[in-house]
Amino acid sequence: MTTRIESESSRSEPALGVIYAGAAFLIWGLAAVYWKELRSVPPLEIIAHRVAWSFIFLLPLIVLQRQWAEFVAILQNLQMLFILLTSAILVAANWLLYVWAVNNNHLLQASLGYYINPLVNVVLGMVFLRERLRPPQILAVMLATSGVIYLTVQYGAFPWIAICLAISFGLYGLIRKVAPVSPLVGLAVETLLISLPAIGYLIYLDYQGTGSIFRVSLNLDLLLMGCAPLTAIPLLFFTAGAKRLYLSTLGLMQYIGPSGMFLLAVFYYHEPFSTAQVWTFVMIWAALAIYSTDSVIYFQRQR
Known about the structure:
The protein has one domain (13-302). By secondary structure, the chain is mostly helical. It has helices at 2-36, 43-64, 68-75, 78-103, 107-128, 135-155, 160-178, 183-208, 218-225, 227-244, 247-253, 256-268, 275-302. The longest helix is centred in the first third of the chain and has 35 residues, at 2-36. The protein starts with a helix and ends with a helix. Helices cover 83% and strands 0% of the residues.
């Protein structure tokens, strides 16, 4: 009986993993709707609130998840603090650019950045971790690069938002990959490190009488405070899903996020979608199809 229960439990784990990871990527994909509701607030002020409220939200989660000892140990490690300060600056810059892009009608380019991100990760792995690229990976990177070059030439403007989002999040992922710290504790320490300047900035805005919180409406106050669960909850879902899924499955599911952004940009917010952008996305999607297929085949062979 016990063996049967354990067997049924093990079979249900992948299904739970799909639910958790799917929920995380879906939240990230649709989060633009939330940020649009805050478009009356300057992006830098939004990020300051996101950082400050996130730390307040994450602290009790550290206790509930019984990771307080790890949290304290990281705070006592100067090398780890420096590493996480670097990753904190990168992720804060990524958040700032993303929120700015959403509220300035560049969601389509933001989605392009997160589509490109897995391929940027491949290049960063080759450059910094000396990982060897397989031929399909080289083809995927070349195809994605061709798409960006084509968009630059035909559209007449370099897609700097997409590239900056992809590179900043790629570098953030690289640092967090090599840093020996759990996702929840790592994010808590990161938000702690940049909370001090964030809170200082919010106090300055309040002193100047230009701050948004507690001045406009209760609805806006709740939205600003809600930046915290919007940051932490999908991360917890993602972590729970990652523990239950194969890496190849998780890799394929990550496209839910930018796909949600893409659909919102084109069909809900009606952002301009030129022929040059169409062909760029086609090339990026083709590159991702090659990359994903190669990843699945490689992972199955390794197993």
